[in-house]
Protein 1
Amino acid sequence: MTAAIAAEGIRKRYGDIQAVDGVSLTVESGEFYGILGPNGAGKTTTLEILEGIREADEGRVELLGESPWPRNPRLLPRIGVQFQASAFFERLTARETIRTFASLYGVGAGTADTMLDRVGLAGFGSVRAEKLSGGQAQRLSIACALVHDPELVFLDEPTTGLDPQARRNLWDLLRGINAEGRTVVLTTHYLDEAEILCDRVSVMDHGRILRTGAPAALVRELDDKVRVSVESGVVGADALREALAAAGAGDVTVEDDGTTLSASTRTPAPVLSALAERNALRGLEVRGATLEDVFLHLTGREYRA
Amino acid sequence: MTDDRTGVRGPADGAAPDGTAPDGAAPDGTAPDGAAPDGTAPGGDTPDGAAPGGAVPRGAAGLPAARTPAATAPGAPVPGAPAPDGRTAAPTPPAPRDPHAPRASRGGVSAFGSLSKVMVVAFLRDRSALFFVVLFPLMFLVLFGTLFKSASSPHAKVAQVGPVAVVDSLKGPARDDLDKVFTVTRMPDEAEALRKVRKGDLDALIEQDGSGTVVLRFSAADQVRAGAVQGVVNALVQQANQDASGRPPAYRLRSAQVEDESIKAIQFFTPGLLGWAIATGAVFSAALTLVSWRKKRLLRRLRLAPVSAGAIVASRVGVSLLTGLVQTAIFISVATLPFFGLRLTGHWWLAVPLVVCGIIAFMSIGLVVGAVAKTEEAANGMAQSIVLPMSFLSGSFFSMDDAPSWLKGISEVLPLRHLVTSVQSVLTRGGGFGDALPTMGGLLLFAAVLTGIAWRLFSWEDA
């Protein structure tokens, strides 16, 4: 079976910087695949090598069973690429822009207009592309990447800089694209985005893939503590500690900061039942680890500009 | 092996033998999406190299005519694909194919056409480019053409103090002839008139003393006019002496004008300014397109589309040729207006192929600039610092005839110099193929060399 993407041991060095350091990954057809990592982790370079824009110093890449490098014209109509910065022609309207890209693939104006409609820009067809808002420009850019019906779509941080509404709107669009059977590869540094959209993610840092898996699996693998919290004052922290010790609940950290009483544990069941027995569930919140915790665990917490 | 595609969820797979045959019964109503519609060779038994979804470049010419016009819709919803979730913005059925879309045919030609259209539209919508490329040079033509129109006959102003017999006695046609050369104003006060001559308000002062001597006092500020006035007054005095002698003149002068081959202002400025305008347009268009498309990642985007570099270059050259020829037409039309009075000679149309070769040569300069420059600002500065000195040294604005020989030497290696000289020759001075062909050859050679250099320096990407 041919995977949509099969990469093995790709490396790329720029001067002193080893941007990609032995990345291997496989993306199955129809999968929604995310590459996560802090800025400078090598996500974009990896993506560019997969797309066939850059040559890897080492390693092997196959896209839909073919090598993308050197420029492979047979492959080009089958892949769609959206860049971080939107690449539009100067002084063209949104409609002219997508029609132009469509014609480069031999796709007619009618299809281009339909695609514009699909990304919700039908009403903005006669607006100059450079005058569109951030979210509109991203949607136009995605529409331009999809206008020729590619099987495999690459999206490089498509929601960066968008407001929450625009992000959610774009997520819906991306899910729809994937639901049609297209393979989607996405880079992002929004963890919630990856968690919601991706079937599988790879966490990258320093040019390497640290971990790959379904977001939920990665979170479970982290085996982090669950934090149970209720409104404080209903039950005392000490009373709870005693009750839990009596019940043999094991390693539980209970704290009360005056507003919230919280208990961190790997086994939340005894905590919950202890609280329920005391009818102290007002304001109950149970928070498990998220992909963000996985990410921070893997890439470290220190800030990197 | 077709089986290799089993996992491909994309309907591009259509009736692929993966047991999902019903999926292939294309929900969009097209023919089963098997192998054929998307460009795979009819027969469909191609090995897995001919993967679905355009194994044959969609733009490739010469595809089997058997291709189904209704292309596949790889976007068709796969029945049974998990409904994403409630919030999904109703995945509209995938873009239905435009049945009239000239999908496969002539991808190269359509890319050339649409890229050309993009550039023409962008140019027409860019007011400042329109101004600087079309109107600005034309303004210079109108300005210079008007300013230097009457520069050839220096009309002198002469003050006459008191009676001067040789002037006063002139009547009829003789007097008219004199008025053509200079205007005589009578002034009562000699000192006042002399002061005006000194200041340059008047060119000369003429008076006659008691002994019959005609006194001419002139300023040498303008030597041409001073010489003309002296000559005319001298001739008047000699004529009067001759008349006074009462004998018929022994010698007569009969003058006849020879067909004038000296260059009139408009003959000089039309090719010169046209050359400058064309060089500006071509260098800037090539350099800025290259830099801005690279910077905006459009080059990368185009590279990811099945578009050849040749189609990109050809469309840019085509559009620049179009603008250059429009400029030429406007220039020649304006210059030949009766007001400016440019008269075209025999093979003037040779200016058209000359301009075409010139544009190609200047675009190659622009390509080098665009390959080297990283930003539009840098490209702008570099282009301007090449075009402007080149125009000055090529005689676009003033003649290089009086320039020192080393400057002329530099000027000889500039493509614009040769373009201007040859266009001048064929346009207004009766030149023919002999003037045009060597220049055209030289310009194309120049373009070939510079394009080669640009190619070596060129990169698709910024980094």
Note: Chain B touches chain A through 76 residues (CB under 8 Å).
Protein 2
Amino acid sequence: MKSNMPVADEIQSSWADEVEIDQGALPPPSEVVENGLKIVTEYKYDNDNKKVKIVRTYKIEKRVVSKDIAKRKTWSKFGDSANDKPGPNPATTNVAEDVYMQFITSKEESQRPDDGELDGLKQQSSSVIFKCRTCQGDHWTTSCPFKHTQMAQTKANEAAKAAGIDSKATPTNKYVAPYLRDGGAGRGTGREPPGARDVAAIRISNLSNFAVEADLDDLVKGFGPVQKLYLAKEKSTGHCKGFAYVHFKFRADAAKAIQTLNGHGYDHLILNVEWSKPPQNN
Amino acid sequence: MKPLMLQGHERAITQIKYNREGDLLFSAAKDSKPNVWWSLNGERLGTFNGHGGVVWCLDVDWQTINLITGGGDSSCRLWDLETGKNIATIKTNSSVRTCNFSYSAYQAAYTTDKAMGRPCEVSVIDTRTIDDSISTQTPILKWEITDTKVTSMVWGILDETLITGHEGGDLIQWDLRTGKKIQSIKEHTHQIHDMQLSRDGTMFITASKDQTAKLFDTSSLELLKEYKTERPVNSAALSPILDHVVLGGGQDAMEVTTTSTRQGKFDARFFHLVFEEEFGRIKGHFGPINSLAFHPDGKSYASGGEDGYVRVQSFDQSYFDYTFDYNRD
């Protein structure tokens, strides 16, 4: 038995649009059936009050189905669909984007990156995701046991560095900037000006405005004997200008200080420590 | 193929089912109006208005004349499919969790939740003549289940037994002549959310929160196959034409907001029936899949999700061309 599919015979605009049609502003909807295709064109205003033309193309299919199914095709709609026109109502029925089946083999299954990533995340969240900036331990920086001891801090840092170098020994695929290679040892020294080899002076910047010489002394005395200490000050206020120079007695101490203090948080600021540049013709 | 998206529900889908010929697709959701759709073009035939709350379950008889639904408003309702009229309403003591017509549709069974001081109950009613008298009819058989509540149910072969899946993972086979337990097994460790029969009714597949789906023999309850995933399985269906199983699930609804769609693993997963190995997946939903159904012709399937959408997906030719590689040794 032949049955006509219940495709849309007529799609009319909703009552809201009909009001607008009454105003004569919009062309009437049209419907063309040709070559087994039905093209329904309607016009309406969009949210920006612009005229929009909507063209829907339906394919009319004829299918041979069993008697029971054909009979059910003649049923009229009921419930909330009672007032729907024949054919799918765009409010309830839509065609979604193409979705294809992804075929997988059991081998791929065991090493899916998807899962690997997930597991990595899981592990991380189950262990510790925060790290002390001072000693790299698994506690917050503010509750670090080495918080107030500069010497201990240095030691902790060295320990962490050693551990860092060990872990670096295992080859990784990640790109490492040249000055960060070898566990970041070249961090300060890499930028060392060639002419300054014999100078053990460092420049500390991004200091707090309220820093005084005593603070600076506290900060650096753990690294070794200091020859000279200069804290730049505003003449009028006597406040710190934000940077200071420290001359160590030994170059090795200075290098250690740069390694330790560069990036170190002090008085809510992150210190920037580098080799002092030689004075330029002044 | 482009799937059809059916947006007839305002809340999460609870169960979807095709009728025997597959021209109609029924969907129930946590809103109060079950829907019926023409499966071919996704046109909505109608809604069944009358329930006062969640509709947990539905079933259609083999002739597509009546629909039975059960819901959280403590009622089990029978509907006329041609007109969408509510023929009879059976008042129950607590919400109705599962309801099924027997194959012949001479009887129907429904189970109620253990709630409001009432135990979980299984009731079997006579549905040979469906009219208003069913509302007041006393069930022909009724028994209480004291330990764990029923969360899914299927009829056994020749309508002689009833198989219930329980919250604790038990499967119990009941003799319908006496209402006595024939046998009970516990192969799952968590709730059995869904059970679906194979085309000929000799096997059925269970979907459980313990992240597995299992295939059982309907008469002996012998465990035949097991399909393992890494997420709760909410629904599983057997292909009527191929040795394929589709599993749907995902994280619990309450945990969904903490995961992205990709992590949540909301795709439908296809396993080989015999080799128990996954061979494909289809994405689509952005919430867990709550219910799955194969079209009786095996050329498409439908899924209903926690996101409130029903998606009808026809298979591409590549699905039918796919062969499972295995060693014949």
Note: Chain A has eight helices and 13 strands.
